[in-house]
Amino acid sequence: MTQVRTRFAPSPTGYIHLGNLRSALYPWAFARSKGGVFILRIEDTDQERSSQEAVDVIIEGMQWLGLDIDEGPFYQMQRMDRYEQVLKEMLDQGLAYYCYMSEAELNTIRDQQMANKEKPRYTGVWRPEVGKTLPQIPQGVKPVIRFKNPPDGSVVWKDAVKGIIEISNEELDDLVIARPDGTPTYNFCVVVDDLDMKITHVIRGDDHVNNTPRQINIIRALGGDVPIYAHLPTVLNELGEKMSKRNGAMSVRDYEQAGYLPQAVLNYLARLGWAHGDADVFTKEQFVGWFDLDHLGKSPAQHNPEKLLWLNHQYIQHADPEELAKQVMPFALKEGINFSVGPDFIKVVGLLKDRANNLIEIAQGAKLFYNAAPQHDKNSEDFKKNVPDTVNQVVKDFIVLLQATDGSKEAIAASMKQVLSSHSLKMPALAMPVRYLMFATTQTPAIDAVMAIMGIEEVVKRLSI
Ligand code: GLU
């Protein structure tokens, strides 16, 4: 069996949103699931709109998601000699021809056709045929090169998503494959690349369905093997519109910066147009093991930010605290946390992860543990309100009990209960003053767990009034 070879072929013309990256994820997963090769090809022939910045974003986004590439990145702009060579071969073999029809003539013909309610198409004036005399080559007109499309019959392919598609060759005129300045055009470059790169499966957005019959005709003319095509339906935004920067789609980088885990985003994207039964949360390995082209969705997928956030929460909640701490670290540094004081960060992350939806929430929550001990003004209204005199003895008794514990959360909780019952008080009567004394706030995660992480010594220091 031939080895599976897939590619992601983005045009680096700006914004890379989640929908774009899904077009990388599926060919990657397919190659990985079949022990194949995954190639990155940068389609940068539109020099005006392409930028290195966009290429970087694509590559970083792929790295972030862990979509490793086996070959490339190849840049179409660096393959111009190769396209020129194939153009020449096609001219030599009569598969393509020079067309001297000027822009103005083409426009006139197009206008006439439109006026007659015909589909605008090239009339084939310069197409060489046996026994046909071509017009005199005009002076000073730089020709384009056109592909000699088959005049009849039809192009049929079995799309892995859309099923059988048949397009009559009458619908396709002779495609311009090189411009007057000699530069090759888009569909032609794609064909040369897909053949040279021995692509077996073209998995791409369905905005390219219309290009496919043209590409297949050129592949056949060149004697190449036609790959299997899988055209993915578009990804729509929450409002059911096509995803784009204009209507607020976030770029891949935005998700990274908003504290999403790449595993969660990968899982989310995997489900955006593909399903394995009703599995919702799965590992990358499971995804690769399960992925196939048979279960790709046929209708447009709709972006659901809440689902993504939910998945992010799932991944954070079940993450290994040590791994998660590494991922939170850049956010914690951004929050200005000073790690030279305070408790073990892994323990802090371990406590905060259960309630967090993203890494920023963890970093913000962690600040509490690293801020310097509050300087209390015991005469202030605030202090008196939160730590009434009546609570002094309770706190003192608590300190004594605390000092006898092993510092575990369980032992701390037991000490709290004990002191509360000896004073016939309820939990908030102690928990609130403790929070306030330790952090000058009454909002903290479960206070027994917080104290266990801070360590008895520090807790006692902060509670001693
Ligand atoms: N460069 C094209 C795009 O960004 C993809 C071409 C292809 O996959 O064949 O839409």
Structure description:
This protein has a 3-stranded parallel sheet with strand order 1-2-3, covered by helices on one side. It is elongated and about 110 Å long. The chain has 465 residues and is of the alpha/beta class. The chain starts with a strand and ends with a helix. It has 19 helices and 12 strands. The chain is 45% helix and 11% strand. It folds into 4 domains: 1-69 and 233-318, HUPs (Rossmann fold); 82-186, Alpha-Beta Complex (Glutamyl-tRNA Synthetase, domain 3), CATH 3.90.800; 322-370; 381-463, Arc Repressor Mutant, subunit A (Orthogonal Bundle), CATH 1.10.10.350. Glutamic acid binds next to strand 9.
β-strand amount: 5-15%
Poorly predicted parts? none
Overall average residue pLDDT: 95
Number of strands: 12
Features:
465 residues; Rossmann fold; Glutamyl-tRNA Synthetase, domain 3; three-stranded parallel beta sheet; three-stranded antiparallel beta sheet; 12 strands; binds glutamic acid
